[in-house]
Amino acid sequence: MTQIIATFYKFVALPDCVDRMAQLRDLSQGWAVQGTLLLASEGINGAIAGSAAAVERAIADLRTLPPFADLTPKLATTPTPPFQRLKIKQKAEIVTFGIPDADPHRAVGTYVAPADWNALITRPDVVLVDTRNDYEVQIGTFQGAHDPRTASFREFPHYVQDHLNPHTHPKVALFCTGGIRCEKATSYLLQQGFPEVYHLQGGILNYLDQIPPEQSLWQGECFVFDERVTVQPDLTPGNYTLCHHCGYPLRQGTTICPDCQAEQSPS
């Protein structure tokens, strides 16, 4: 049965994070959804799935909490359940970056709507950088994007320090899957003195949803953090699976990645 996937985040100060966790757990007793909700003192990050009615109920309940009254989820469909159960966790950050001063509450880059993204990233004076991890970039990215070759988002500040300079790269455009990483990454770049910093509003998934294929500058598929593994440019489930041993994404038809295969092969 087709399910609705709702993804959302909001950076909002939650000094009462522990109390909010208790409220979320109480509310979730009436939900028939699966997925993950992350809560931290800096906000909320979530991805849930279920029937249209179940997802609508969960979002409505979340909006009864004042900090999340204007929560705006991004919706998609999938033919099979993308999550196995509902997990609600408290974290230090809703997206792990490790730089406390990179604070989206104080400053973020300029949001660029998908309709205006192509014009921006094809400008010769704009440096386009993919903020995602290396395995995600290998599956798909925008034409002309720089790959930081990071294994985790924590490594992104090191890439900036080694490869970007606010004097020689005054205009930088960033993108990520759903937009949340770019909130912190653009905040960090502004903090480092970059004068013009842009990010794709709603991320890659919003772009693929709004831009017709014949106008798209996206190449490949897009990695997503659920059991679909990837989505194609039309947002239907993609052609990747996960290594049964390490969880690395692989083309369908393969069950083990080369590294795990080498470890299991007799010397």
What can you tell me about this protein's structure?
It is a single chain. With 267 residues, the chain is an alpha/beta fold. It has two domains: 3-90, Alpha-Beta Plaits (2-Layer Sandwich), CATH 3.30.70.100; 110-220, Rhodanese-like domain (Oxidized Rhodanese, domain 1, 3-Layer(aba) Sandwich), CATH 3.40.250. Helices cover 27% and strands 25% of the residues. The chain has eight helices and 15 strands. The strands form five sheets. It has a five-stranded mixed β-sheet. The termini are far apart. 36% of the residues are buried. The mean pLDDT is 95.
SSE blueprint:
Layout: E1 3-11, H1 17-28, E2 34-40, E3 43-50, H2 52-63, E4 74-78, E5 86-90, E6 110-112, H3 114-121, E7 127-130, H4 134-139, E8 140-142, H5 156-163, E9 171-175, H6 180-191, E10 196-200, H7 203-210, E11 218-220, E12 222-223, E13 230-231, E14 240-242, E15 249-251, H8 258-264
Parallel strand pairs: 2-5, 6-10, 7-9, 9-10
Antiparallel strand pairs: 1-3, 1-4, 2-3, 8-11, 12-13, 14-15
